[in-house]
Design brief:
The chain is α+β, with helices and mostly antiparallel strands. Among the domains are: 1-75; 126-224, Chitinase A, domain 3 (Roll), CATH 3.10.50. Helices cover 50% and strands 16% of the residues. It is built from nine helices and eight strands. The chain has helices at residues 31-39, 43-49, 52-74, 81-104, 111-120, 141-152, 157-164, 187-195, 228-258; strands at 20-24, 27-30, 126-127, 130-138, 176-181, 206-208, 211-221, 224-225. The strands form three sheets. It has a four-stranded antiparallel beta sheet, sandwiched between helices. α1 packs across α3, α5 crosses α9 and α6 (141-152) runs antiparallel to α7. It is elongated, with a radius of gyration of 31 Å. Residues 1-16 form the signal peptide. It holds the Pfam family Rotamase_3. This is peptidylprolyl isomerase.
Length: 264
Amino acid sequence: MKRFLFVFFLLSSLFAADKILATIGATNITEADVKAYVDTLPAQYTQFYSTAEGQREILNRLVNNKLLAIEAKAQGYEKNPEVLKILENVKEDIMTDRYIRNSVADITVNDTEVSKYYEDNKAKFVQPEAVRASHILVDTEEELKTAQAELGKGRDFSDVAKEFSTDPGSAAQGGDLGFFTKGQMVEPFEQAAFALKKGETTKSAVKTQFGWHIIKATDRRAETQRPLNEIRQDIREALLQQKQTEKYNQLVETAKKKYPVNLK
């Protein structure tokens, strides 16, 4: 059956709120429809699709989808059993989601609760002692002697690391490993690094399963207690999630009492 479809693009109105961007018969596609589609996209795509060019592309997609939806309806897919089953499942999911959201909507966490949790759990918010170190990693004692000789000449540690270190992850950065805390490195390396003062280099090379290391401590950071103001929002969000989870479990248990479950 022939049907007359009139598609009229209003591209010049892409940035006007709720403006009609296209019409397909009696159906309108608005700027709000385009924005809603963009909001569903992964974050890495939103920048492009927020531009005029990107929104035009989205508009074309929406038009094409709507055209095919109209045709699918004309061919009876609206009453297709498989479609109806999927719609019923989606409806159930949406109802459940809205029920949960509405049930937890009034849950809040106040400043007193945040402060109490912080005081009761201060040990959780300690920033442990850390060392920033650079190293020169070599495979053999001969290579080790060569690197040590270069350092003995007064060459910069970073330059020697770039030239002689076999560590693919740090050589290009002059051997820099960044800050690390205890437990992050293999034990012999860790012990040697944490024994150094800022600016010191190991007098003897350290042997690990990776090879020979010459280690230099470039910075140190003492153990510190993170202040409440720095982590207040993190604590609030964690407590809120905890309360919401408790409410969810409460809803499930209440429902189980009303509607007995028999697992088979």
